[in-house]
Amino acid sequence: MAHALLSIPNLPISSPTKKISTLSSPRAAPRACLNQSPQPPNPSLLTSITNLLWGPSLPPGLLISTVRTAWHSTWQLMMSQLAPSDTSGRYSRPPSRFRWANFSGQIPTALHLYVGLPCPWAHRTLIVRALKGLEDAVPVSIASPGPDGSWVFNDIRGRDSDVLLPGPDNANGCRNLREIYKLRRGGYDGRCTVPMLWDTKTKEVFCNESYDIIQLFNSGINELARNPGLDLSPPALKGKIEEWNQIIYPHVNNGVYRCGFAQSQEAYDLAVNDLFSTLDMLDEHLTSSRYLCGGALTLADVCLFTTLIRFDLVYNVLFKCTKKKLLEYPNLHGYMRDIYQVPTFA
What we know:
- This protein is α+β, with helices and mostly antiparallel strands.
- The protein has two domains: 38-230, Glutaredoxin (3-Layer(aba) Sandwich), CATH 3.40.30.10; 231-346, Up-down Bundle (Glutathione S-transferase Yfyf (Class Pi), Chain A, domain 2), CATH 1.20.1050.10.
- 38% of the residues lie in helices and 6% in strands.
- It is built from eleven helices and five strands.
- Strands 3-2-1-4-5 form a five-stranded mixed beta sheet, sandwiched between helices.
- This is GST C-terminal domain-containing protein.
- It comes from Carya illinoinensis.
- Residues 234-346 form the GST C-terminal domain.
- Residues 18-41 are annotated as: Disordered.
């Protein structure tokens, strides 16, 4: 039976727990099964997802209404920025305009990162930035989804500088992301997306392609990193990493959007079958492999993780990826929990 296109219901909540300190050691025990209760017990599920996507600063009494309101704003933003379709109703993601891969000059030394916490593409840049120890070298400004479908900044600064919270534009003092894009030479009238790397010296958008940014953070500015020896794309694994990304990007990272933004039943059915057949394959692969490329965590794992961590919480309902929950994939769910336990991923 074909799955029907669904309306957008309220968002359910769940979250993994626990921390570990290693990136590449093999498991000492089998992956967690569905009937195993994590220890210690899970914290408040609503608080967990709010912390993940909007920061841990909201009073408990405002959590429910804030999460619901924020998700409607996030949905409006995604529909305005990310949801073009072709003549058959299939979602077609526009390419990023500003690419490091197309840049031929010297890498700027005064970069500023713009992100939004609900965005999985921005999340991957924050993870690699933290793993490499680039927090001081590449400052960040965090925008929130606005009611008009744009990324906006506020004037509230977090009291804890170690906690990532939505706040002001720390580089340009702008009210929203579009104002920043328009500061570049010649202006700008295109899509204003996160993540985005801004050159603070030349007042130019350096890159707004997430995979380019994590590659840059991994190896392009090692002289600025506290952990220059950490390589999430070592030469011996580059081929495998690229092979995995050729699967993960179209079928999982972009696959959930193909489901959520499908404009016809045919396009939706095709996207759902494509997504879940890929998840089936990944679950089988992880039966005998700690990470995608073996025993070492790589950029491919970072890219997959930021979709998996949102799967049951967001994509299963909001994006109509309802065929199965991630909880029903014992290896994928255990893999996601393993990675979540690395402190910089939480």
